[in-house]
Amino acid sequence: MVQTENENKGLALLKKGQKGILHAVFSRFGLILLLFAGQVLILFGIFQWFEEFLPHIMGGTALFSVIMVVYLLNSRVNPEAKITWLIVIMLVPVFGVLLFAYTQSDIGHRALKERINQIISGTREEIAQEPEVMARFDAENRGAASLARYIQRSGCYPVYDKTAVTYFPLGEDKFARMLTELEAARHFIFMEYFIVDEGLMWGRILEILARKAAEGVDVRIMYDGFCEFALLPHDYPKRLKALGIRCKMFAPVTPFVSTHYNYRDHRKILVIDGHTAFNGGVNLADEYINRHSRFGHWKDTAVMLRGEAVKSFTLMFLQMWGIDEKEQEYARFLKVPAAPLTLDSAEAFAGADAATSLALPAQPGGYVIPYGDCPLDSDRVGERVYMDILNRSTEYVHIMTPYLILDAEMEAALKFAAERGVDVALILPGIPDKKAAYALAKRHYASLLESGVKIYEYTPGFVHAKVFVSDTREAVVGTINLDYRSLYHHFECATYLYDTDCIPDIEADFQATLAKCRQVTRETVKKEKWTVKLLGCLMKVAAPLM
Predict the structure, then answer these.
(1) For the chain, how big is the Rg over CA atoms in Å?
(2) Which among 475, 479, 467 has a CA at the least distance from the CA of 501?
(3) CB atoms < 10 A from the CB of 34, how many?
(4) N or C: which end of the chain has fewer CB atoms below 10 A?
C-alpha cells in the first residue's frame, strides 16, 4: 500500500496511474468485464437457439406475443416500462420474453430485498415519533403533516423540531464546513457516498479520517461498488483498513450476469457523533468542488443538520451498513443531546473548540424529516414527495435537477401545477454530462412549456443539485434526481424541510442561479439541432432504463 501526503492534497493511497479506464480494463475489473461479456454472449446464444424454432410456428409466435402483451398490460410494471418491453417483445418475441422473465425474476437481489425488508421492519420503532411535535405540525399545516405520515409509512422517519439546518449553495462551501466538523469528531464518523475519488477533496478528508481513527474514533465508510470502475481498485477497503478505517463497498462488481446492477447506493450521508449530519448532491471527488472542471462550472448543493433529526441519518447509515452483519448495534449511536445544540452543548458533547463550532439558535424554527427511498419496495417515496409538494403549492415551486427523464405521473404533476397558476420553474444543466440523457430531457420541453412550466439552462456549466423549494415554507434537498434511475432504481435519501430558517437561503440561491441561466422557449425548442431531436426520439424507447 502506498501512502503519500502533502500539505495541499492531504492523504493518497494510490500511485499515479492506479486509476482510470485503462487501469480498470487491465485489472481485476477487466477480468470481471470479460467474464461478464462471455456470459452475455452465452445467454444470447441460448436465446438465438430458441429463436430458430420460430419460423416453424409463426402462428404460435403471434399468439405467444399477444399473451405477453395482455400479461404486461395487467402487470404492475411502470406504464412507460411496459411500452419499452412491448416493443422489445414484438420485435424479438422469444428473446424479449426470456429477457423480461429474467429481469423480473430478481436474480441477484432477492436475498438483498429480503435482508433490507428485515432490517427496515426490525428498526421501524428504533426512533420514536414525539406526539407533541406531530400534533403541532398537523395544527400548522395539515397537508404537509399528511405527507409526513406517508413518509413514516415507508420506514422509521419521524418529524423533528429542535434541529438547525444550514444550506450550502456550492460543493466548495460544504467541503470547507465538512473539514471543520470532521476535526471536531470525538466518537464516530459515518460516511456513505455514491462516488469516492482520490484528489484534493478526498485527500484532505482522508487525512483527517486517518488521524481520527488513530485517536480511537469509530470511522466507517461506504461507497457504491461502481467506483471500482475507473476510480478505485478492488482492494481499496483493505488499504483504508490499514489506516484503522472500516470500509465497505455496496454491491461490488462481480462476474455474474445479474439484475443486482440496477440497484446502486446513490445516497450521500455524513454523520458526526450523532449530532451533525450532511446531505445533498455533493460526492467526494474534485469536480464537485470545482477543483477539476469536466463540464464547466459544477453547481451543487447540500445541507448540514445539527440536532435531533440527525438520528434518522444515523439510522439510515447503520441500516445499510448492517446488510451483511449478523448483529447491529443501534441504541448507542442514536443517543444525541436531548436539547437543540447550542455552542456550549456542542462542545460538551463533541469536545470541539469554540473556534470550530457553530452557535445555533436556542430554538431552531420549523420541522425536519430526513428520509430514504428504497428501490426494493412498492413505495416511490422520492417521487411522491415531489408530487405532493407540487400538488399543494399555491405560489411557486422552484426546482434544480441535473436530469429530466419523467414518467407520465411526474410530468402531469408539473404541468397541472403550472396550469393552476403556480410558478413552476426548472433549472437544468447548460453543459450536459450525458448527451443521451440531455437529448431525452429535451423531449419533455415542448409539453411542459405548453402548460406554462418555465425551463432554464445553467450557462456556466453543469447543475448537479437536487432541490425543490415551494411557497417560502417547504423545501427538499437531497440526492433524488428527476429521472428513472433515482425515482425507481436507486437507494436514495433527502431532507424535507418545513418553515426552517434556511428556506429563504434556498430560494435566494435559486434566484441567484437563475440569473446565470438562459431561458428555454418554444422558439429555441424548434431551433434545436435535428441530431439532438433524433437522439431524444430514439432514447425515449429506453427511457425507463435511464
Answers:
(1) 24
(2) 475
(3) 11
(4) N
